[in-house]
Amino acid sequence: MGKRSVLITGATAGIGAACATTLAANGYDVILTGRRENRLAALQKEITNVYNVDCTTLAFDIQDRRSTLEAINSLPDTCAIDAVINNAGLALGKGPFQESQPEDWDIMLSTNVTGLLTVTHGIMHKLKVSKHPHIINIASIAGMESYAGGHVYCATKAAVRSLTKSLRIDLLPLGIKVSAISPGMVETEFSEVRFKGDKELAQKVYRGFQPLVAQDVADVVLYLLNLPKHICLNEVVMTATAQANAYHTVKD
């Protein structure tokens, strides 16, 4: 297996950053995208100092279709993209729907769904000419089971799972693999973002049990990418041992 190039959205922290370092450590060239230029630069420096791979960064807000496409189109024709990890996503708020903010709906929809579509469509011409094309969408068990206060976030992740299945069918004649990874609770900045900077509330989510960490998901991403060409895992559902589903978690 020769080097391949993987574009990762939301690469500045959490699952995205773990994917970046894990893939680089295994000989993959990486294209890192995100909003925070300083974090992208720091991660790029870390990767290029340690691993003998190419590391490119693209700073843009995935909610903005124009800037997203401008960034993608700025890549030279010689820059291959063999796979994309559609990881950028977030939840905002966990109160009941009647107390939710329409501005939060817009951010979740434009990031979790429209942004994924924009990036995937924007790099399709590069995937078509790859010998090992693969789209990996980071979904969630929230897309399988709705829970109280999940409303719009759960709907966006259900959309990601549905889109993954549709893309699998549409892209089948092109030989492009399409997979979804649906994790349970993963201890990242996710809850801090959801609770809008309330670190104490965010930490309570993960107390009393051992949740997944970003590296766990990155390891699964690497496994999917390393599978033989004739195998496509359509979806991986993964949770901590202490979490059975969106409703049942055993805590101390």
What this model shows, in words?
The protein has one domain (5-236): NAD(P)-binding Rossmann-like Domain (Rossmann fold). Helix content is 42%, strand content 15%. The protein has 9 helices and 9 strands. It has helices at residues 14-25, 37-50, 65-73, 102-122, 124-128, 151-170, 190-194, 199-205, 214-226, and strands at 5-8, 29-34, 55-59, 83-86, 134-138, 177-183, 186-187, 212-213, 235-238. The strands form 2 sheets. It has a 7-stranded parallel beta sheet with strand order 3-2-1-4-5-6-9, sandwiched between helices. A two-stranded parallel sheet has the order 7-8. Strand 5 (134-138), helix 6 and strand 6 form a beta-alpha-beta unit. Helix 1 (14-25) packs across helix 9, helix 3 packs parallel to helix 4 and helix 4 runs parallel beside helix 6 (151-170). The protein is globular.
Distance between the termini: 45 Å
Oligomeric grouping of the chains: single chain
Largest sheet: 7 strands, parallel
Number of DSSP strand runs: 9
Structural class: alpha/beta
β-sheet strand percentage: 15-25%
What's the rounded overall pLDDT mean? Answer: 95
CATH topology: Rossmann fold
> Uncertain spans, ≥5 residues at pLDDT below 50?
none
Helix content: 40-55%
CATH homologous superfamily grouping: NAD(P)-binding Rossmann-like Domain
Measured on Cα atoms, how large is the radius of gyration? 17 Å
H/E series, N to C?
A: EHEHEHEHHEHEEHHEHE
Tally of discrete structural domains: 1
